[in-house]
Amino acid sequence: MLLTKPFFGQLAVRLKVTDASEMLPTAATDGRRFMFNRDFVDSLPDEMLDFLVGHEVLHCVFDHMQARGDRKPQLYNAAADYNINMTLVEQNIGKPITEDKLHGGKICMDWKYQGWNSYEIYDDLLKNQKEAKGMDVHLDELNGDKEGEGMQGPGQEAMSEEEKKVLADEIKQATIQAAQAAGEGVPEAVKRMISELIAPKMDWRDILRTQLESSLKNDFTFMRPSKRSGEVLFPGMNKDEELNIAVGLDTSGSISKD
């Protein structure tokens, strides 16, 4: 996978491989470990094993361990699996695991959800009252926590909010580095997420104010000292001109996000 799908391979090798056969029927991740049932993993051909590893990697990348919020745990976990599995198929990562190997679980796959995120899929599942169970174990279900607050696995205490934040930051940095190193083969959803992470964020009102103020005729004056100069007295700006502004919104749908 490191050679053929370097984005997924680089993120996979950062996970500590942990045998959790006594606790898991299939596999799971907590963001730092790839936990698995040995009999389940041994039953998978290489292509299905690649799919499983890619599945756990994307749980980390999309931060599904924390993204659920107050949504219904089992339904959101299924939505996350739909989201991930469609991405893996689009990226040609291995081969989807057949249900005869999932110990009662199901492979959540539906082309209807191509391009949807986990929140949109969740809303659709909730609206249509669809029951679903994913192919792997999500730790909030494993720990018997109906509200899904737990995040621990074998041999680990539940994470504090600060520890969860640190882990999320670690995964974001690892994702950015893996995408930069891989070049091609990065899922479009991941590219969008990375763009949001690295793009400087400014309030549109601040940008508009700066642009408008730069177009006004003004001069320096000591009658209105600058408030940013601290104890040193510097002149402020004397703005005598006013602008009349009209705002128009294009609602035709012909404009892209760029």
TrEMBL record:
Residues 1-229 form the Putative metallopeptidase domain. InterPro entries: Put_metallopeptidase_dom. Pfam families: DUF2201_N. This is Putative metallopeptidase domain-containing protein. The lineage of its organism: unclassified sequences, metagenomes, ecological metagenomes.
